[in-house]
């Protein structure tokens, strides 16, 4: 892959040309992204399957559409932030879907975590003249609100350049290479994150067995090789439900195609043992599973 250095101009408050943006998916991260783009001066139309979730965005100045097709009418850039490949397929290509309404010259920015193969399949089904940039992100909801996400982009260089002002409103942008490269990077990062958090849980179990209290153990671990995982496991504002983490590790295992990855399997087993699949992954380290 050709690596292009990070750029970061997240404090920019206006975009030349006032690109019209549609955001499909108003969960916690999708809503934060839409709100950030509104604050940057873009006209934003949002759609969400559960319509009530769009009410705060309407109050913030966004337009609300009744269907994905309505949301993308006239949009220069369409952002999808959805749960899984099936949701992306339904929202783009199902009844009332967005894809047929994407005009030549428009760009679809796919920010969901669906894996590189699914991204390339979506790209192959778009109307002629519509580009796809896969641009999953790393960072919490608070990072999205502050424009401090890390954005991993894949796609044609010209398409990435065209949507870069939009992506830079969200945070630091790294173009990793052709279509699917951003989605591939997100699988690598999520595999490392989930293995790390599961490792913190095991280390805390060891601490309990040898008489080290939890707070002391976290302090010790925070200064060692698991420091970043400890920071994530003790975060108060992150929201990565166990059910979505399990979906992501499923994508990782599909990509591995049977190659040995014992720590990925162990992390997925830890997720499967969690009592509440809707809870954040930090609950893996709260002692209930130890």
Automatic annotation (TrEMBL):
Gene3D superfamilies: N-(1-d-carboxylethyl)-l-norvaline Dehydrogenase, domain 2 (1.10.1040.10), NAD(P)-binding Rossmann-like Domain (3.40.50.720). It comes from the Bacteria. Residues 20-172 form the 6-phosphogluconate dehydrogenase NADP-binding domain. The keyword Oxidoreductase applies. One of its GO terms (molecular function) is NAD binding. Keywords: NAD, Oxidoreductase. The keyword Oxidoreductase applies. Residues 180-273 form the 3-hydroxyisobutyrate dehydrogenase-like NAD-binding domain. The active site is at residue 186. Pfam families: NAD_binding_11, NAD_binding_2. Belongs to the HIBADH-related family. This is NAD(P)-dependent oxidoreductase. It comes from Micromonospora globbae.
